Amino acid sequence: MSHTFRARLGRISRFLRSFEERLGVTVFLLALLFVSAQAVFAHEFRVGDLEIVHPWSRATPPGAKVAGGYFTVTNTGSSPDRLLSISSDVSDRTELHEMGVKDGVMTMRPVSGGLEIPAGGRVALAPGGYHLMFVGLKQQPKQGETFPATLTFEKAGTVTVEFAVEGMGEMGGMHDHAN
Known about the structure:
Elements: H1 3-41, E1 44-47, E2 50-58, E3 66-75, E4 81-87, E5 91-102, E6 105-110, E7 115-117, E8 122-125, E9 130-137, E10 146-153, E11 157-166
Parallel strand pairs: 2-11
Antiparallel strand pairs: 1-2, 2-3, 3-8, 3-9, 4-7, 4-10, 5-6, 5-9, 10-11
InterPro entries: LpqE-like, Lxx211020-like, PCuAC_sf
Organism: Mesorhizobium delmotii
Protein name: Copper chaperone PCu(A)C
């Protein structure tokens, strides 16, 4: 082998080793970023047999008096539970609503008596269905921020969750929170 060829082979070998090291560091950093993003977008809370996944709200325009709230609650227990009330310092009051379509007309009405979470089941509070209404906003939810709310369940008790505020037109992040 000529001296020039060995020198080239050495440079190529060093380049590939250096490239592999850089690639490994890059993949590691991307994995850390992905895990961190999942923690932000898919935060969850537990109380008793209930798991509350990704509470979120939308940013509101200046002067808005209401905001919506959404999450999925899964009951891993053998008996049903019931969401009885919600409270938050972000608004004067918080109401549970149901949206539906009757005779081609979209309706929204408060849910009285709470919302049952069936044993071994799951209920999604999402745009177009069950959802929370934060009424009489004391501050405007801003994209990228969070705000706390306390959920009270009949059997599991109370849990404070953090609502992640997404953009005004968002539908709940980049994945399906009902699953």
